[in-house]
Amino acid sequence: MNDCRFDVQTPYQLLFENGMDAMMFTAPDGKILDANPAACRMFERTRAEIAAAGRTGLMDCSDPRMNELLTQRECTGKAHGELNARRRDGSLFPVEISSVVFHDENGSSRTCVIIRDITERKTAEIKQRQLIQELQAALAKVKNLSGLLPICASCKKIRDLQGYWHHLEIYIRNHTEADFSHGICPDCRSKLYPEHSPRG
Length: 200
Prior knowledge:
The protein is an alpha+beta fold. Helices cover 40% and strands 22% of the residues.
């Protein structure tokens, strides 16, 4: 692909060849002039295949964000955002893309594009949103009692906000996640069933 490679100075060529992010030199019309090894790994293509594919072959051009970024770059000379890219097998994956326009020594408009695969970040964001939704759903099911509860000093019924009186067990069951398991305490057993109480 020597005929397509963009001529850069040695320090920049070293950065281009060894960068961890995908880097491409392109033309504003979408033609790809050169791609670094990281781009080849990301898109699972050779430099020649990347050049042959061009922008339309590497990016999901049906994504409405594409036109927004191209318009942004046309107006300001640079653009930054997220898009969906396409691997060799046609599968799409999310990327963060930065692009800037410059002029080469001949005065021709060229663009430098840096692309980062953000699949792991997006997966983590989805898991985080799912966790938040699960926690919100769990909290929505939790019922709490707070404040002062008017309770009858004799029968222990509780008065609700509408003024109705409810048995303690029913009120707590309706307003919390608690339920009851019945038994009898030693004092009541002695009072109600003295014949079954331990003799002192």
